[in-house]
Write a structure and sequence with these properties.
This protein has 241 residues and is of the alpha/beta class. It is built from ten helices and eight strands. It is globular.
Length: 241
């Protein structure tokens, strides 16, 4: 009996958007209007690349970025939840599928000593260039018309599950914990024994509700959470079954 926990990162593990939080490093903690208005829907990673160039051009160094990112608050109850998962790793495999980037997630998890809770992190690869600028790339190429061009979370999840099956690992249940519109695609991939946990009041919950109104509900069960304490309560019940 083993369960797979799939977490989004921004507004799920941390209570902010890591990509917008980094703007605290910018002069006067804001971006020029021209840069802000350059975002094109579905091209967030390219936009963040421009933001990182702007920060680099303004002399923002790696140390300052790291100091800023590791001050990001965790969602209410999340520290206790991740501690609980860490204590029960024999029952839970745990992955992150996020539109953030490897540098930010690595910094935040390591600073809080949670990196060992997660078996894998699927997110946009980032690194500092020889000139000290942070650069970011698309996670992968895909053909899903519903998702931003840099990341289809359904494809990332499906490929992970397929690899696990090849290793002889299958899961009693997949629990998907997220908040955003780009979490709907992987939620629609879940089976009837799985569970989607959308954050209360956020886009994913609203999109799932709209599907139900249109008589095309998701196949899996749905349990809404407002604090990570709700998730922990569910997992405690799950492992006692």
């Amino acid at each position: 009996m083993k369960f797979l926990l799939v977490f989004d990162f921004d507004h799920t593990i941390v209570d902010e958007n890591s990509d917008t939080w980094i703007v605290k490093c910018a002069p006067e903690q804001k971006l020029p209007n021209g840069l802000r208005n350059s975002y094109r829907p579905g091209h967030w990673t390219e936009y963040m690349g421009s933001v990182f160039v702007y920060l680099g051009d303004n002399g923002v160094k790696e140390e300052e970025m790291k100091r800023t990112m590791t001050a990001i608050p965790f969602t209410e109850g999340m520290v206790d939840l991740l501690g609980f998962i860490g204590e029960n790793k024999e029952l839970f495999d745990c992955i992150i599928v996020s539109d953030s980037n490897t540098v930010f997630i690595d910094w935040i998890l390591k600073a809080a000593h949670f990196h060992e809770v997660f078996d894998e992190v699927f997110t946009n690869p980032a690194a500092f260039s020889s000139t000290g600028y942070l650069t970011v790339q698309n996670f992968h190429a895909h053909h899903c018309t519903k998702c931003p061009k840099n990341l289809c979370k359904r494809q990332a999840l499906k490929e992970f599950l397929d690899k696990q099956l090849e290793r002889g690992v299958s899961y009693t249940q997949v629990v998907y914990i997220g908040d955003g519109g780009n979490d709907l695609c992987p939620v629609m991939f879940l089976k009837k024994d799985d569970i989607a946990m959308p954050r209360q009041g956020y886009t994913l919950e609203k999109k799932i509700a709209h599907l139900a109104q249109d008589y095309t509900p998701v196949e899996c069960s749905v349990l809404v959470w407002s604090s990570a304490t709700d998730i922990r309560s569910y997992l405690k019940v799950l492992i006692k079954k």
